[in-house]
Design brief:
By secondary structure, this protein is mainly alpha-helical. Helices cover 74% and strands 6% of the residues. The protein has a two-stranded antiparallel sheet.
């Protein structure tokens, strides 16, 4: 077996990333619950506070907390999760490069990094600092689009460099 064949990542090994990610997800989620006292009760209170609210200057009604500022602890916990999960995704991306994972998997992970770190920023700015509920959700939609563009740009760059 040549050296390049030994280093090549086999698609049958992709389950390893799934198993590691699932384990790390549980560790990160558990850590957030340990770091945030009574988080489960605060999450229940958040959902009990949801009401149907008219979106400003629009004839549209969507769910929103009746008292958004009462749930800063929940927003902060989700913000911490986003940061920690973004860091995990960076580590997974580094592993994907080191283990020569397929380009589409690297692109997917890179898009995930963009999404989770962007989510951290949006929660900090639009929920924790100012609590602008509907603006936050509009920006999440934009962030999803941006993460897809990051994936596409990576794949385009890889394909261009392989020509």
């Amino acid at each position: 077996m040549t050296q390049s064949q030994e280093r090549r990542w086999h698609p049958s090994n992709e389950w390893i990333f799934g198993a590691v990610s699932a384990g790390l997800f549980l560790i990160v989620a558990g850590t957030i619950f340990i770091m945030t006292p009574a988080l489960f009760d605060k999450i229940i209170a958040f959902f009990k506070d949801l009401t149907i609210v008219k979106v400003t200057d629009m004839p549209i009604y969507l769910p929103a907390p009746a008292f958004p500022r009462d749930h800063l602890m929940v927003y902060s916990a989700v913000m911490q999760f986003s940061l920690m999960w973004g860091i995990v995704e960076i580590a997974v991306l580094v592993l994907r490069f080191a283990l020569h994972s397929p380009d589409n998997k690297k692109a997917e992970t890179l898009g995930n990094v963009a999404y989770w770190l962007g989510s951290y920023y949006l929660i900090q700015k639009f929920l924790v600092e100012e609590t602008r509920w509907f603006e936050y959700w509009a920006l999440v939609i934009i962030l999803l689009g941006a993460s897809l563009i990051v994936r596409a740009m990576f794949l385009a760059a890889v394909r261009e460099s392989s020509r």
